[in-house]
Amino acid sequence: MAALSVLAPVAGTVVALADVDDPVFSGEIVGPGLAIEPDPVAGGRVVAPVAGTVVKMHPHAFVLATDDGKGVLVHLGINTVQMGGEGFTLHATEQDRVEPGQVLVEWDPAAVTASGRPAVCPVIALDADPSAVERLAAPGTAIAPGDPLLAIG
């Protein structure tokens, strides 16, 4: 079976999960992956990183399931659940079928930062064995929505 390509959902700079200020992500408790520090100038469009079905949709996070059962979590900022959805506009709902590059959420990373929360966006291969995940983008590099981020074997 071919590896699943996971694309960047936002524009910004790639960050290693170990450098994310949240032990659930930095410790890879929910799974391996990478994070993206969003570019405040690039706008707040968040696109689907894979083709699949929306299985969870919250203003601050969503999970997509691919046809072969792989799960991908995109989390918009850290502790942003505390914002109660303010500043997030959803363009998809649970059970929607989505394609890579489709806009799922609009948000304002600068407002997240202004609220005292990190705007970094972890992109996680849920329940994946770390050895099955290849990081296609190096920490510190600039990335645009739709650029290759991860490959899940």
TrEMBL record:
Pfam families given in the database record: PTS_EIIA_1 (PF00358)
Domain (PTS EIIA type-1): residue spans on this chain: 22-127
GO terms (BP aspect): phosphoenolpyruvate-dependent sugar phosphotransferase system
Transmembrane segments: none
Main subcellular localisation: cytoplasm
Domain of life: Bacteria
UniProt keyword terms in alphabetical order: Kinase, Phosphotransferase system, Sugar transport, Transferase, Transport
GO CC field: cytoplasm
InterPro entries: Dup_hybrid_motif (IPR011055), PTS_EIIA_1_perm (IPR001127), PTS_EIIA_component (IPR050890)
Protein's cellular compartments: Cytoplasm
Gene Ontology MF annotations: kinase activity
Protein name, entry field: PTS glucose transporter subunit IIA
Organism per entry: Cellulomonas denverensis
Organism classification: Bacteria, Bacillati, Actinomycetota, Actinomycetes, Micrococcales
